[in-house]
Amino acid sequence: MTTVLETDEHKALRAAVAALGTRYGREYLTKVIAAGAHPDELWSEAAKLGYLGVNLPEAYGGGGGGIAELSIVLEELGAAGCPLLMMVVSPAICGTVIARFGTADQKQEWLPALADGTRTMAFGITEPDAGSNSHRITTTARRDGTDWILTGRKVFISGVDIADATLIVGRAEDARTGKLKPCLFIVPRDAPGFERRRIDMELHGAEKQFELTLDDVRLPAEALVGDEDAGLLQLFAGLNPERIMTAAFAIGMGRYALSRAITYARERTVWRDPIGAHQAIAHPLAQAHIDLELARLMMQKAAFLYDSGDDAGAGEAANMAKYAAGEACVKAVDQSVHTLGGNGLTGEFGLASLITASRVARIAPVSREMILNYVSHQTLGLPKSY
Description:
alpha/beta
């Protein structure tokens, strides 16, 4: 019987990444964010140790593993308080799509650099007026001789300021049907007509959010990733890893918050015993731990199915994992802050900022309501409501 539980190699990877994360920790990331900088030192060291490219093919300098291994890396860095959000985007989405569908030249140009961390790639799908409806994407790609010309807007795109290129989801006209179909293009950061504007967020993170404008951006034929007729297959090859990695991000954050609360509950004494001896404190923390463990099981299942090549099965599991992890993270952070009382809102303990950050996994890359819609009609066979 095949199991989705972790191998000895996975456990060793988890322990090694946890050790790296502990050497940096929350204090490091807090200083980076306060300085308006990027966690370059941690990114570079993680890359040198082979963690950033653990999912990419060995032939291109990667570790030859899969999303199962990459999710372990992100989860453990998150549990140490220093998650690298660009891992969700650069190696997980972009690296996976290029590894699966890119041309030989695209693989040679990008995969070694994504694996060793010397280059990063952002991912642009979300649009101001489309929301969760990918069928309303208005960024269009039209042919002009052998070139492509892209026009449109994107919003809430992470890390564009540091990325060497952005993998843009556009729509091109199908020559046979006339209908628009999704296509993926690598857009260099300095391409003429490719502009970015930073979005002012209440969310404080090292990775900034941007609105993008593509004003007749001219790209050569080789900017197209994969077959222009394979649109949805290629798109979901990136979106399923995105959901799995978002789950890892959320589980790591929840574990970090919970560990701070557990330490506090063991030591804080108001009456005779530490407050952790009281069931009103202990039971909610135990429930938060159970929810995080259950979310991780679904994340492991999703990663196993994806790495096994079962895209359909992985789609359902990845959505469920992202949903479960988002809910578990929010509850863990909320209970952790509540356990500390007033101290939970101080800068000293560093939990208050997670109140906002934990909501990310509920909202992005797809809302929990859209996941419930997906499960309702895809899994349960109920009528579609939209």
